[in-house]
Amino acid sequence: MNSADITTVKSILSQPQNIVIVPHRNPDGDAMGSCLGLSGFLKTKGHNVRVVSPNDYPKFLKWMPGNDEVINFERENPKAKEAIENASVIFTLDFNDFSRVGQMASALQEATADFIMIDHHQQPSDYAKVTYSDVTMSSTCEMVYNFIDFLGETNGIDADIATNLYTGIMTDTGSFKYRSTSSKTHRVVADLIDKGADNMAIHQEVFDTNSPSRLHLLGVALSNMVILPDYRTAYITLTQDELDQHDFKKGDTEGFVNYGLTLEGIVFAVIFIENREEGIIKISFRSVGDFSVNEFAREHFSGGGHNNAAGGRSETNMEETLSKFNTILKSYKDQLNP
């Protein structure tokens, strides 16, 4: 954020506001951590704050401080719309285009509030009065910490705020192993621990609360893995029937795509997950090194994200999607084998 943006934000927040904070659809740890962390901070400054999620999110995030007050746009539509209509300020966190909030997009487009965007994805839209966009950041949660710092208010971060921000940084950095994890990230995390974030307890809540059915589903996913050594690529498929047979719950496949990158020599990993209700194949892409899955997803599968982590979708069936993927992959052989 530049000095003009900081001045604008300070002016907006100088008086009590009705504030709504919105994550992207199917919010992950960074989306919910940033929203709940910012919500907690703004409440300490006397603002009326509501977090409105476009839809539900995984059980392993529902222990987070402030979770009980989140409004689900799908399940509590009138209440959510009323909050948005009455908002004087709307923060959009961890996304940068209204297309990322699904059916909630029209409600945001019709809102009369001032928008403030905080996000670390590429190619932001220009809907916000203040845009804080930085694609080099590890996470939106690290950016929310910076946002609070820009306001000179880090002393106001309590244990609950620290817990939420730590959770998002931890999950979006792959427990601090991704390239975007900087020395500054570690300094921010150290301060959050000093302010009350219990790193061991947070890790256990997020990663050590698996159900037997989720682990069995992981076994199916790994048995379905296809390895293409000539392309340094590995991909996983999961059909709707396989999900149903293992009592699939939202969030159960979180992290599955990363297993491909644990194989020696693999630099590109993909998971294809059938969603029969939406009529799509949901796709997650991961890479290491210089191969941009953001460009790959944008070019071929109506998606995007970061250079090393992106998402996409296919509106054909699994067989046709895989055929398309394998055909496209042939043109990337040189890029995957520099």
Write structural notes for this entry.
The longest helix is centred in the first third of the chain and has 16 residues, at 29-44. It is globular, with a radius of gyration of 20 Å. The strands form two sheets. Strands 3-2-1-4-5-6 form a six-stranded parallel β-sheet, with helices on both faces. Helix 6 (159-172) packs antiparallel against helix 7 and helix 6 packs across helix 8 (199-207). It has 338 residues and is α/β, with parallel strands linked by helices. It has 13 helices and twelve strands.
Cα radius of gyration in angstroms:
20 Å
Strand content: 15-25%
Q: How large is the count of helical segments?
A: 13
Amount of helix:
25-40%
Output the strand order for the largest sheet: 3-2-1-4-5-6
Mean pLDDT across all residues, rounded? 96
Largest sheet: 6 strands, parallel
The coarse silhouette is globular
Order of helices and strands: HEHEEHEHEEHHHHHEEHEEHEEHH
| Tally of strands | 12
- Distance from N terminus to C terminus (CA atoms, Å) equals 37 Å
Q: Please identify the structural class as seen in this structure.
A: alpha/beta
State the low-pLDDT regions, or none: none
What's the arrangement of secondary structure elements?
Layout: H1 3-12, E1 18-22, H2 29-44, E2 48-53, E3 71-72, H3 77-86, E4 89-93, H4 105-109, E5 114-119, E6 130-133, H5 140-150, H6 159-172, H7 183-194, H8 199-207, H9 212-223, E7 226-228, E8 233-238, H10 240-245, E9 268-275, E10 280-287, H11 293-300, E11 304-305, E12 309-314, H12 318-329, H13 333-336
Helix pairs in contact: 2-5, 2-6, 5-6, 6-7, 6-8
